[in-house]
Design brief:
The N and C termini lie far apart (about 100 Å). The protein is elongated. α8 crosses α13 (about 565-585) and α10 crosses α11 (about 480-490). By secondary structure, the chain is α+β, with helices and mostly antiparallel strands. The chain is built from 16 helices and 31 strands. Strands 1, 2, 11, 12, 13, 14, 15, 17 and 18 form a nine-stranded mixed β-sheet that branches.
């Protein structure tokens, strides 16, 4: 099409390229920040200025930065866009692309022209990206658009070399400007600018006021004004009229809506191209703009969708699984369910607090295996097993971390085998196993060879408890829980106990005191039918007893020595123990969160609501029975004469350390004497410490 020796301008669409690190970073943003938000987020793209390639816009992980980048990055210009991700593949496919482009284009340019003036000519460059992200499969569908009106026609006379009358002056001003920009800004900062002979190069914001369009170029002689653009399109001497870059079309549209005084008039233009690195070539032309558009709403038809690699107007697709390490894929997939909880169900869930909690599992049997799996499902990264047993043939069917081959040749050590199995399931986890027999009251020490071994074990146990945040008591016998219960109380660690009967279970948290000798608090009436017990004043596993633990395996038949229990009981208890820990991690008071128990007299109809954390109530103990399908939530105070957590025991251990423990191992009676529960001693009527102030049944 020609008009008065003029031809219709043609434009070469911009190609796009998305670096893989963009999608990796966006997955984190989608999971943790955007979630279900489909309003779109601002991003930044990089328009490549290589003289040997076509216009190319790239986005990478830095495109998602919340702070605005500089006007350039190396040889690339930085431009602004919108990234719009759909939550379902159906909504991505079914959205009306024509209406979508119109709505976003009108909004983009309306926001632009409502500013007083441009901050930088790069603000004219706009793009839109729509996408759908398959977060499970690491597959991404996306489509770029560089919006401009479809029906605006720009005509021009053939580009030619810059006339000699202005060539020398322009080159001098331009090169001085480039040198200044490179010194001050390490690169060119403007892609569009204006040149006036005898004046020099000026910025668009010095000539155009977007809120006052009628004043723009009102008194200017268009013969002395050159609109200049830096074109990424290669220019060859034998084809001076090759299509211009698509970004120039956006510049022409910008002038059409902001400068009515140059509408339908012939304007002078200078095209700047990189002939070679560090060298520029300049060409001139005359371009006639269309009629001024004052209302963006009058534009119905917009174009700019990019064609894909097959030459069709359709989205592109990329799968990152092939380029990702399997361990990385597994780690992200494992945490997917947890991060999805924050989308709707528990937006305030602190996954980092859970993830960084270090857990010590004393016992790697049925309870230990089930607890470990639940901890791993919650994203716990550090799990340590302590067990002295070996895998037997009866174990794999009940203890889910072992296999038949683990029982061959006498059986592998349980602790290290369980840790290895966790790492097979989740290679990112930090899991280890310690082959330790926990010293127990009533199990005497051989005075000739055993003292040194016991001291080494005690040192190792103490170090393990100090290095972990939560101690799970999951052993088979009552006496094996005494030492870790006492050490947890002494070192201010949270202990969670799970114990099994044939068809019953008990799960409880021990009182958590950050200070070793923290004083007991008082119970408080909450006035809603519940009594509150502060977290530091809750009882431990041994607070309900009035006798010290002894050797429970002595003179017992096989069925009494083994934990004979219905198979489902362990899974229930293990799950409750882990959920209790996670709920405490999320509570404002952490491990010291209070517990409550209902008082029937003040709430006979049981209508009062127990205070909750973000994941529900935080009971002291949960007692269940699957034969009656019943559960009971209870809470009890710390017993002043407890053989594990009372100040009598803690004080004596603080002074005597290993000597006290060895004495307890040789005779559990030592504990009863220490706390005043030895009824073989004639009580002093004036010393009420000889007897318990209350008996917990």
């Amino acid at each position: 099409m020609e008009r008065n020796n003029e031809k219709v301008l043609k434009f070469l669409p911009i190609s796009s390229f998305v670096h893989n690190d963009f999608w990796h970073k966006y997955v984190d943003i989608k999971m943790d920040i955007d979630r279900l938000d489909e309003n779109g987020r601002p991003i930044q793209g990089f328009l490549q200025l290589s003289q040997s390639s076509l216009p190319l816009l790239q986005i990478d992980c830095s495109s998602l930065n919340s702070t605005t980048l500089a006007a350039h990055r190396g040889n690339d210009f930085v431009c602004k866009g919108i990234f719009l991700n759909y939550n379902t593949i159906e909504s991505f496919k079914q959205c009306d692309k024509k209406i979508l482009l119109k709505e976003h284009s009108q909004r983009i340019y309306k926001e632009l022209v409502n500013q007083q003036c441009l901050a930088n000519s790069l603000d004219i460059l706009k793009f839109l990206v729509i996408s759908f992200s398959d977060l499970k499969g690491y597959k991404f569908y996306y489509w770029f658009a560089f919006p401009v009106p479809a029906n605006l026609i720009y005509s021009h006379q053939r580009f030619s070399s810059l006339p000699a009358s202005i060539a020398d002056g322009f080159k001098q001003h331009f090169l001085e400007w480039v040198e200044s920009s490179q010194q001050n800004y390490k690169g060119l900062t403007e892609i569009f600018f204006i040149y006036k002979p005898n004046v020099g190069i000026g910025l668009l914001q010095n000539y155009i006021r977007q809120t006052e369009p009628s004043s723009n170029f009102h008194d200017e002689n268009l013969e002395n004004i050159y609109f200049c653009f830096y074109d990424t399109t290669p220019c060859a001497n034998d084809d001076l009229s090759s299509p211009l870059g698509w970004h120039v079309r956006q510049f022409l549209f910008y002038l059409t809506i902001t400068c009515p005084n140059i509408a339908e008039k012939t304007t002078r233009w200078i095209r700047v191209c990189n002939a070679s690195p560090g060298e520029f070539s300049f060409f001139s032309a005359s371009i006639t703009l269309p009629k001024h558009i004052s209302n963006l709403a009058d534009i119905d038809d917009w174009v700019g969708w990019e064609i894909n690699d097959a030459g069709r107007y359709a989205p592109r697709f990329v799968s990152l699984v092939e380029n990702m390490a399997p361990k990385c894929v597994a780690e992200n997939a494992i945490n997917l369910n947890l991060r999805l909880m924050k989308w709707r169900l528990v937006p305030t869930l602190d996954l980092k607090a859970i993830n960084t909690t270090r857990c010590l599992l004393l016992g790697a049997g049925t309870l230990g295996c089930n607890v470990a799996r639940s901890l791993m499902a919650w994203g716990i990264n550090t799990i340590t097993f302590v067990d002295y047993g070996r895998v037997s043939f009866s174990n794999p069917v009940r203890q889910t971390l072992y296999r038949y081959e683990d029982a061959l040749n006498g059986g592998k050590p349980k602790a290290s085998t369980a840790a290895d199995r966790l790492k097979e399931i989740n290679p990112a986890i930090t899991a280890s196993g310690e082959n330790i027999l926990i010293p127990m009251p009533g199990h005497p020490v051989d005075n000739t060879t055993g003292i040194g071994e016991i001291k080494a074990v005690l040192e190792k146990m103490t170090k393990l408890i100090e290095e972990h945040d939560v101690i799970f008591l999951l052993t088979d016998s009552r006496e094996s829980r005494w030492l870790p219960s006492m050490l947890a109380a002494f070192h201010g660690k949270l202990a969670i106990n799970a114990a099994l009967g044939f068809d019953s279970y008990v799960v409880m948290r021990h009182g958590y005191r950050s200070s070793k000798l923290q004083s007991q608090g008082n119970m408080q009436d909450t006035s809603n039918g519940f009594i509150r017990i502060d977290g530091g004043n809750l009882g431990c596993y041994f607070c309900n007893d009035v006798v010290a633990p002894g050797n429970s395996l002595k003179d017992r038949t096989l069925d009494q020595q083994c934990t004979v229990t219905r198979p489902a009981v362990s899974s229930i208890a293990a799950g409750l123990a882990v959920e209790l820990m996670v709920s405490l991690v999320q509570h404002a008071q952490g491990f010291g969160a209070p517990a409550y128990y209902r008082t029937p007299r003040s709430d006979p109809a049981s209508i009062g609501q127990e205070p909750e954390g973000i994941l529900g109530i935080l009971p002291h103990s949960i007692r269940g029975n699957i034969s009656t399908q019943s559960t009971m939530i209870t809470a009890t105070e710390r017993f002043k004469k407890c053989v594990a957590c009372s100040s009598f025991v803690i004080d004596r251990y603080s002074k005597e350390k290993e000597a006290f423990i060895i004495e307890v191992l040789n005779s559990a009676k030592t504990l009863e004497v220490t706390v005043g529960l030895d009824y073989s001693i004639t009580p002093d009527k004036n010393d009420d410490k000889q007897f318990p102030t209350a008996i917990r049944l």
